[in-house]
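thought: fold this chain, then report.
action: predict
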Amino acid sequence: MSLNPIRPWRNIERRKSRQIMVGRVPVGGDAPISVQTMTNTDSSDVKATLAQVIAAAEAGADIVRVSTPDESSTRALREITRESPVPIVADIHFHYKRAIEAAEAGAACLRINPGNIGSADRVREVIKAARDHGCSIRIGVNAGSLEKHLLDKYGEPCPDAMVESGLDHIRILQDNDFHEFKISVKASDVFLAAAAYQQLAEATDAPIHLGITEAGGFVSGTVKSAVGLGNLLWAGIGDTIRVSLSADPVQEVKVGYEILKSLGLRTRGVQIISCPSCARQGFDVIKTVEILEERLSHIKTPMSLSIIGCVVNGPGEALMTDIGFTGGGAGSGMVYMAGKQDHKLSNERMVDHIVELVEKRAAEIDAAARADEAVSG
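observation:
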């Protein structure tokens, strides 16, 4: 539960789910909502794929998925899983033997699309491989690849069809005494995905993987994902998320984190509160924020920074942030520390000085956290 006794209207009561492990990352229960992405390199190219995995991990990805469509990619997966800083999920389509090979290669989780993996017997073989090699499984239902008998029954992809597909495959896992699984019911239609996830959340206690599939390009896909995932997360549904964009996987991670940060469900790095700018601005807000986002991207310590162009809203926003800068007149503005006026600063020195202040404050927060751990440990 996201508990805020001072501002109860910010509380989010998360759906109760059981917990599984994806490698060393807990998913479900009271674990933080994890952020995932997927590589888009040729999976048989170990160097390129690992570079993308590492970049995603540095951006904050907790888990990375790698497609394994052929034997060359499952062979490469062995080295990728060995060198990866985060657990790797093997993405399986059409050929169940790739799932078995991926489990043997060290995948932490196998993503199976029940609409195209094959017969129940083949799924059972995959279950055995997962159990033997300590893999979890994600049942990945997708509106675009539902089983023919469900499309015949319902006439089109709909929430009932998607949830029925998911529950059918949950039964196969449970009948084989396998319980280390999570499930998704993705669609590119926000309404369809949200309705399916809401129905699924009531039908199972399995951890839920959230996503709006094929959401689109960076801008349109970000908006679509924020609407769909934000709505579900606000309702307490979701244990791990993947934002699907036609963009660099690093951007998927950043957007995913921003969605979680906006709801107070995860904190990582500097959250910049900034105004859209107007004729009152005492400096170029848009350009300043753009530069600060880049120069502060290495900070992982949770912090808040307000960058406001004038004194109309600046002092009020600064009250609620760790560090703030409010534009004034004559080429200078006011720096706020912990909500209080601290010192004046010229616009020309603003960026460098704010970066220094943030880095110093981050070091102080980290040192205090280490001291607390030493005392409690």
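thought: worth noting. The two ends are 25 Å apart (CA to CA).
final: tokens above.
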